[in-house]
Amino acid sequence: MENRMKERRQSKLREEIYNAIVQHPVHPTAESIYEQLKATYPSLSLGTVYRNLGILAEQGLIRRIDTYDAADRFDGNMQPHSHIQCRQCGRLEDVFLPYDGQVDQMVERMTGFQVEGHAVLFSGICSRCKVPPEDGRQQVQ
Amino acid sequence: MENRMKERRQSKLREEIYNAIVQHPVHPTAESIYEQLKATYPSLSLGTVYRNLGILAEQGLIRRIDTYDAADRFDGNMQPHSHIQCRQCGRLEDVFLPYDGQVDQMVERMTGFQVEGHAVLFSGICSRCKVPPEDGRQQVQ
DNA sequence: CTCGGTGCAAACGTTTTGCAGAGCA
DNA sequence: TGCTCTGCAAAACGTTTGCACCGAG
Fold this sequence. Notes:
By secondary structure, chain A is an alpha+beta fold. Chain A folds into 2 domains: 1-78, Winged helix-like DNA-binding domain superfamily/Winged helix DNA-binding domain (Arc Repressor Mutant, subunit A, Orthogonal Bundle), CATH 1.10.10; 79-131, Ferric-uptake regulator, C-terminal dimerisarion domain (Dna Ligase, domain 1), CATH 3.30.1490. In chain A, 35% of the residues lie in helices and 19% in strands. Chain A has helices at residues 12-23, 30-38, 46-58, 101-111, 127-130; strands at residues 63-65, 73-75, 82-86, 92-95, 114-125. In chain A, the strands form 2 sheets. The first copy, chain A, has a 3-stranded mixed beta sheet with strand order 4-3-5. Chain A has a two-stranded antiparallel ribbon with strand order 1-2. In chain A, a hairpin with a 5-residue loop joins strand 3 (82-86) and strand 4 (92-95). In chain A, helix 2 packs across helix 3 (46-58). Chain A binds a DNA duplex through helix 3.
């Protein structure tokens, strides 16, 4: 990584990647951002997408969501909130609950860590997967 | 995967893997379980460790912890509890907080998901990393 | 004898990285 | 001109899987 101290230039591409995340409420993966922007930037490289996602996260403009799936998701909403993921289809949605800062202090006393925050990930079955379609196939996202 | 309906035989090795997780409070990775058991079972294969971890998790004897690191950790304590991870060294510790089942119901109403549960992961800096050692090196676990 | 467990190696999906060239400040 | 950004490809990394053999029941 080691991008910490670099001066950043204005990059049209990075801005587009940022927009793709902020405008779409789907919490995209790096791959799906790549697919989306590939239409406009045919020469786009997946490595560049990853690099810029890292930079944007480091700058605090987006955040990385660890899910139960292999691939990380990215979220442009920096307001503290939680997520819920469908165990069946992988769909990831926002859950807006009041952030409990008190529990962070409690855990700080319990563990001796300097607590920086916490993330809550709910899991379950989404409404679309509750009654599976006739043919048995499951939709993904 | 698709191990769901299989009848299981008694496997000394699986039992050892289970013991390695339950007895050690460090929330080991597959790799570190492998390293540990390699001493006693020189022919042990990493694939076998992964396979058995999957089986044990499926049987509800252990659980998989998603952390900020790439590698999954495994926990033999099935009592519901949370975890905290050090952003610096990766250390993962238990945090025993009362499980809030009410919030699951609330989220169920909010999202339309059939909520199965939630996991809380705290992050911060552990006491050992707070004041880094003279030489600047950081300990890992 | 049957079917699950194991070791081995290859494959997999995601992410990172080294390098050379392009282009902003 | 200097340093960042980019594309490309290879590599890294954790994990899964196909296969042949071993061994429990």
